[in-house]
Fold each of these.
Amino acid sequence: MRAFTFQRVTAAADAARAVAAHPGAMFLAGGTTLVDLMKVDVLTPDTVVSVRHLGMSSIDVSDDVIAVGANVTNSQLAWHPVVRDRYPVLSEAILSGATAQLRNMATVAGNILQRTRCPYFRDVHASCNRRHPGSGCDALDGFNRGHAVLGVSEHCIATHPSDMCVAMVVLDAEVHTVRADGTTRSILFRDFHLAPGDTPHVEVALEHGELITHIVIPHLPAARRSHYLKVRDRASYEFALASAAVVLDLDGDTIRAARLGLGGIATKPWRAIGAEHFLSGRKASDDTFRGAAEIALAGAVAREHNHFKIELAKRTIVRAFAAARDAKL
Ligand SMILES: Cc1cc2nc3c(=O)[nH]c(=O)nc-3n(C[C@H](O)[C@H](O)[C@H](O)COP(=O)(O)OP(=O)(O)OC[C@H]3O[C@@H](n4cnc5c(N)ncnc54)[C@H](O)[C@@H]3O)c2cc1C
């Protein structure tokens, strides 16, 4: 175990200042990502600043939005009665992830900032541009069955692992932060995670030391008819091979508007805007959903072992929309 300094603070701006003051400092919430990665030397902070005593742990519901504190646990958010009622897609996405024990410990901010499960990222003896910029990417020609087909680059094909984030991106949630100088800002979820491009090590639109304080989810009446479908190698305690978060606004059997997010196949929580446009005004049939799926995957780039994900994702999209359409509200 490497030695590190542990700090506990009681004000959000102090936490931001404490991390901003040290290039090697990191926030600690539930620890289910950070401590795991410290044990295998992938993350080696010299200072760890605990945010668990900052509050930021309430879920505040109004007519227009739900504001979710950064330290709310995954379980608290998933089981909140208003979330289950107004945003089934979010509740289902969270409950499909990890295990009950992990969800009880894991926080919302930590989930958003969890790191890829790419085995080459998690192995310090492998080449990984995300972990060690410029070192190469062993996944490109390695065993890449679990890797991404959307948003990939020649420098990284690591999949973003979160389920919750796929629902958040579909709901147009906003991430609210405070910086070391005390200024605050909000970042649309769609813009929060970054595709790897030439800089895979830059994963999110945060400055060093910028603290997530809460997430705001706008009220979306159509989200009552929403669904998260996750396809994976085993039924629980497993990351997605492909997943779809869908919202369907119906007028009889015609689609007034639809939203589509994809997980397990992309380098960031993926929003399929082109597919959404295709769906609006069409009949809510399986053929229509298949047409949207073709558009959503049109730009997919597969490697040696993950080609199956393209067809798997298309079928996942069709099934998710069909389930939302057929749901008895
Ligand atoms: C075995 C296992 C299986 C899993 N399966 C799934 C799954 O199927 N689906 C899924 O979606 N997830 C899964 N997860 C991931 C899990 O959801 C995350 O590990 C968890 O949400 C992280 O939250 P945490 O509070 O423990 O974060 P921590 O580990 O404490 O922190 C994670 C990151 O967030 C940063 N951070 C924390 N709070 C803040 C803040 N307020 N502001 C800025 N930065 C902050 C930390 O510095 C760190 O970089 C799994 C995890 C494990 C260990």
Amino acid sequence: MHDLVPAGVSPPSAARSLLFRGALLVTQDPQRRILRGDLRVEGGRIASVSPHDSGSADEEVDASGFAIVPGFVNAHTHVAMSLLRGVADDRELAGFLETLFAVDARRTEADVEVGARAGIAEMLLSGTTSFLDLYYFEDAIARAVESLGIRGFLGWAVLDSELTTQKGVPIDNARAFLERWKGHRLVAPLVAPQGVYVCGKETWLRAKEVAERAGTIVHYHLAETRREVHEHQQKTGRRPVVWLEEIGFFGSRSVAAHAVWLTGEEIGILARRNVGIAHCPSSNLKLASGGVAPVVELRAAGATVGLGTDSVASNNSLSMLREMHLAGLVQKNQRWDATVLSAQQLLDLATLEGARLLGREADLGSLEVGKQADFALFRLDHPTLLPARPEAIVSHLAYSAADEAIDSVYVGGDPVVRHRTLVRGDWSTIRRDGEAAAEALWSARPKP
Ligand SMILES: [Zn+2]
């Protein structure tokens, strides 16, 4: 049994000072400097980034064989679905959802926690230090976040009461979840309308109201498929983005996942209304959403775009390195233009822009003094990083680096992965629990 941390109480992160010496620092600062030097961490935050630090520290690390890279921000996932990898491959969205709903109806809070632990382990081992989630039983996911040491921005899924399988009223459940976890060091609770296909006007506006009162973002799916857009038009006479604008939903900070099927007018609305976009290319390609999200136009209009993996039922990986690689290739090929979405821009999407989506750009997303010490150490001797030259490191991160090149990961100055081993959890236990919990879920699959 895990104890919830009472509201307002945040346990201190690493009080010790840490000094990483001689690393290749991929700062992601405003000048995007890459430098050989030393990185100091104090009280869980970055205290200095310099060519040479002449001071001492409680712990000094020879980091000369490593690149230190800001932790990735996965801007859209359903982490607890890690037990459902491969459960509904090679189907259209409708058939995919039919299988997912049948399995989902069998889920318990206990197996959601098991699934979340497995997914978080996969994320930490692939360099992700923050993620934005959309699901239910988010208390179970919050407990997994707390115990394994990642940062979780956890959206409690809300939809119209008559359509939910949740006990009670979803928006009230969300509000109670926000109340239970507010002020936590690693868990940022928020409210997450599932999408226009299950949320009416009332649900959207109440979600906005809850978020505004709590000072959080709202997270939701939007304009993922042509079918969603078409059916919403049939029902309301408006495309989803235009409809959300008309009902008065936009205005406070929010993050929309997918945003594939947009008109120029809708791109303008999203940019003007400060709506962040979580681009999920793997999921869109695998489910054949068709078309390609207008990432270049969204960015040109001034919208913030981050990268999300979506769940492993539709990806089937939580690796942000894979997502960067794919995001770049798809945009280039689609436009017959190799210059769009450069390696540097892809790394921005996975780090700084993700932090901006969460409203945490002052605190996360780069190696700058005062920010949280969230970063990964990449082995420079890994084959996928050869030649390990400073001028090529960003290219390698965007296009070639494998998850296995990541040696260690820190969140708030605390080690969470060391030499490819989880520090605060035991993978063999997580795996065993995951296999056992998957047994019941997989048996609930409808016959194809
Ligand atoms: Zn999703």
